[in-house]
UniProtKB/TrEMBL annotation:
Entry keyword set: ATP-binding, Cytoplasm, Nucleotide-binding, Nucleotidyltransferase, Transferase, tRNA processing
Species, as recorded: uncultured Verrucomicrobiales bacterium HF0130_14P10
Gene Ontology annotations of biological process type: regulation of translational fidelity; tRNA processing
Protein known as: Threonylcarbamoyl-AMP synthase
Subcellular location: Cytoplasm
């Protein structure tokens, strides 16, 4: 079977045929690459769980073209309509009561389903060609670093990786914001590119942000992906710091930093400050731009991890805007049981 596809009309038509036949295919979205299948095909969905080695109690997000198609799989309320009018297509996932046609395997037996309309033009064309909702969790083994480029799929799965459509690097680099609208309380379950303030401005209310302090706090059946305390993990240990100043102090004062430790910073750092420690440096943005940091985060983590360093160090961002989403990913990537 062909493993790599471009984005020509002929290739996308062939990919749509693969999906129609019940196969799984890695597709680009504006957030990360997703491992897509027909959302209403139970056997296809089971292939996604098997390929990712994903726990059966961790539900999937269904991707649709628009609100009209969403209504076939969920029951949107007035809040969902308001948010979808502003943020769809885009990186916003809504958790809503599901309809009867949604297979139990997709929702892990829950009465709710997570739904979004992606903005990536390649994914949208595939949705148009298959004329059906697609489930598409991140295209990587469960709990590991999310893929933001086509080559990351092979890195994650090896030579037996699923077919991949190469749509280039993803635009945003981190997963969608997840908002729970399944009750009268509006809750942000996972921070993402659309921040709390933007959602508040549309709804006229301040969404709750539930705290997830430790793995023992996680629900047995999370309402959406990305809610586990331990997630997005590199193979090498990752240590995070409250800010760049704390990281710098650690680098200067800690005598036992292992040689070949990778230091990932927000912007370029003067490496000459640490000539004798044998550290490896890389940065997420030329000028410390939070959106660029988010876009490059997973790719830089992968790049560092590929060297099998004894340790990876990275500071958090201020808890504003997309910084909250970046920090969420870093905390979960560094979480230890």
């Amino acid at each position: 079977m062909q493993k790599h596809y471009g984005v020509s009309p002929e290739e996308l038509s062939h990919v749509a045929g693969l999906l129609h036949s019940g196969q799984i295919v890695a597709l680009p979205t504006e957030t990360v690459y997703g491992l897509a299948c027909l959302a209403l095909n139970k056997l296809a969905v089971a292939k996604v769980f098997e390929a990712k080695q994903r726990p059966i109690n961790d539900p999937l997000i269904i991707h649709v073209s628009d609100l009209t198609e969403a209504q076939s799989v969920c029951r949107p309320d007035h809040r969902a309509i308001l948010l979808s009018e502003v943020f769809w297509p885009g990186p916003l996932t809504l958790v809503l009561p599901k309809t009867k046609i949604v297979p139990t395997i997709v929702t892990s037996g829950l009465s709710t389903v997570a739904v979004r309309s992606p903005a990536n033009p390649v994914f949208r064309e595939i949705l148009n060609l298959v004329s059906a909702p697609l489930a598409a969790p991140s295209a990587n083994p469960f709990g590991k670093i999310s893929p933001t480029r086509a080559e990351h799929i092979k890195q994650s799965f090896g030579d037996e990786h699923p077919p991949v459509v190469d749509g280039g690097p993803t635009k945003l680099g981190i997963e969608s914001t997840v908002v729970d609208l399944s009750s009268s309380r509006t809750r942000i379950l996972r921070p993402g590119p659309i921040d709390r303030e933007a959602i508040s401005a549309i709804l006229g209310e301040e969404p709750e942000i539930p705290e997830l302090k430790a793995s023992s706090d996680k629900p047995k059946k999370p309402l959406s992906p990305g809610l586990l305390a331990k997630h997005y993990q590199p193979e090498s240990p990752l240590q995070v710091f409250s800010n760049t100043e704390d990281l710098m102090a650690f680098l200067k004062m800690e005598p036992s930093i292992p040689a070949a430790t990778f230091v990932i910073t927000h912007s370029p750092l003067n490496e000459n400050c640490f000539p004798s420690k044998g550290l490896k440096f890389m940065h997420l943005s030329e000028f410390g731009d939070p959106e660029e940091i988010a876009k490059n985060l997973f790719a830089r983590l992968r790049e560092a991890d590929a060297h099998s360093p004894p340790l990876i160090l990275c500071p958090l961002l201020p808890e504003t805007g997309i910084g909250s989403a970046v920090n969420d990913r870093l905390r979960k990537a560094s979480f230890k049981d």
